[in-house]
Amino acid sequence: MPQTQNAELSDFLVVANRLPVDRKTDADGQPVWRTSPGGLVTALEPVMKRKGGAWIGWHGAPDETIDGFEHEGYSIVPVPLNSQDVEDFYEGFSNATLWPLYHDVVAPPEFHREWWDTYKQVNQRFAEAAAANAAEGATVWVQDYQLHLVPSMLRELRPDLRIGFFLHIPFPPQELFQQLPWRKELVEGLLGADLIGFQLPGGAHNFVRLAKQLSGVQATRDTITMPDGRTVKARAYPISIDADGFKALAEDPAVQEEAQQLRENLGNPSTIFLGIDRLDYTKGLRQRIRAFGELFRDDELDPAETVFLQVATPSRERVEEYKKLRDDIDLLVGRINSQEGDIGRPVIAYRHDSFPRTTMAAMYSIADVMVVTPLRDGMNLVAKEYVACHQDDDAALVLSEFAGAAKEMKQAYQCNPHDLNGMKQTILKAATDSKSERRRRMRALRKQVFSHQIDDWAKDFLRDLGA
Ligand code: GDG
Fold first, then answer.
1. Which runs of E-coded beta strand occur in 115-259?
2. Is pLDDT at 5 greater than 80 in this prediction?
């Protein structure tokens, strides 16, 4: 039996670059697989358990082939990647070509033919693994930009399947997408799906327009008709979070104790500003840190009473742009802390590290103002998690208008992160607005976040896919 085939075929399959499990070591030194934290897993696990599912993805270690196994009532089907695949498919084409191109080219995308060749090969491998594990007429849900070609490759192998695709990042406007030497192939890769989900209606419109132009297909609004009469829908499904889960976490006494400790460690300031992001150039960290530097320099924020806590989770550390970003941020934070504040009381508490979800919840709950200022973001879950962790109204969210979340979170203090002065004013306003105004905004945000949670997102998509 091939490595990637299960004993039993599945009726529901998720295909994603990464598996929903991480390898840890237990007390006896034995390797064990634990569910990775994250919204997607939380949303899809119940569906997989109900329908008998399989999750197809890479387990995270290059040059290692492992057998599939059962986990929490569903099948784990590993797809192996070697070091060259990781370099060309993952770090290269996915994260140094598509990622910057799809985020408004805030860093220059690189186009390399070898990366593209490997990208195609790896997508084919994922498609074959899905085809080998799907029961007749099964539903397959492919996730994200690393697997753009899987829908059409899979349809070629298994025309009986229902195929959905969801893009977690923005889908760019035509003017930018046209830069891609392989633009037609990428569009046609997605056209293999029955339903293509985007974070925002704008992404769906961009895609439909490009499909008409590059592939010559017919389309009316969200429905594309293929030459053989098959229809493909392109619609928006804004992703959300397990808000109830975050609320419970923030209310847990152990988390509250940790929050209290954290506040003390920061010197019990009267105002805590918080940023939590993957260390990524799309997240607007350079601009945000400069804004805070100027606010402290110009005495608009008082270092005796204010701390800006910024967590930057390590990410894509072998990709050149990310190494440069890390150095830039270290330099910027170091420079500001050497000039502002007092000895032993840095104005910016900066951690390049990742933390357990409990610590994340503790940080959210002590933050008086959450600052989320990406230059471009598909959605941004951090903004929603912050709101879910605040049952009190003494909180405020500063949110970039270029985050997908800005479309739903209209009551946030919105700003343009390219406009440094405008962003500084918005940060100050969020911190100093009247209690009643902050309360009004937080209530509206909470209502929004709790009324559309991650399982609604999955249900809406799967209903429209006809699963
Ligand atoms: C992509 C799109 C879209 C962060 N640090 C730690 C940690 N996190 C968790 C957060 C949050 C998630 O990671 C980050 O999600 P975001 O949405 O903010 O950003 P991306 O990683 O860029 O996600 C984005 C998303 O996909 C979903 O479709 O919203 O636009 O770019 O959940 O809590 N979690 C833990 N420790 C950390 O240190 N445990």
1. 134-143, 162-166, 195-198, 218-220, 223-225, 231-236
2. no
CATH of residue 356? 3.40.50.2000
User: Ligand 1: which atom is nearest the Cα of residue 381?
Assistant: 17
Q: Say how far apart CA 55 and CA 330 lie, in whole Å.
A: 38
Using most ligand atoms within 8 A of CB, pick from 239, 255, 262, 278 the residue to mutate for ligand 1: 278
pLDDT tens readout for residues 285-296: 999 999 999 999
Within 13 Å and on the Cβ side, how many CA atoms surround 168?
A: 17
Candidates 440, 361, 459; CA nearest to 394 is: 440
Residues 188 and 321 in one domain: no
Residues with CB under 6 A from ligand 1: 37, 168-169, 239, 276, 278, 313, 354-357, 360, 377-382, 385
Are 278 and 178 contained in the same domain?
Answer: no
What atom in ligand 1 is closest to the CA of residue 353? 38
Which of 106, 380, 389, when mutated, tests ligand 1's pocket best, judged by the most ligand atoms within 8 Å of its CB? 380
Range list of β-strands (E), 133-203:
134-143, 162-166, 195-198
Q: Are residues 201 and 311 in the same domain?
A: no
- Taking the whole predicted model, whether its pTM rises above 0.85 is answered as yes
Q: Which residues pair with 236 in a beta bridge?
A: 198
Residues 226 and 269 in one domain: no
User: By alpha-carbon position, which residue is closest to atom 27 of ligand 1?
Assistant: 168
Tens-place pLDDT, residues 209-265: 999 999 999 999 999 999 999 999 999 999 999 999 999 999 999 999 999 999 999
Q: How many domains are contained in the chain? A: 2
What is the per-residue DSSP string for 321-368? Answer: HHHHHHHHHHHHHHHHHHHSSBTTB-SEEEEES---HHHHHHHHHH-S
Host domain of residue 14: 10-239+455-465
- What's the token pair of residue 126? 């994922």
The residue type at 460: D
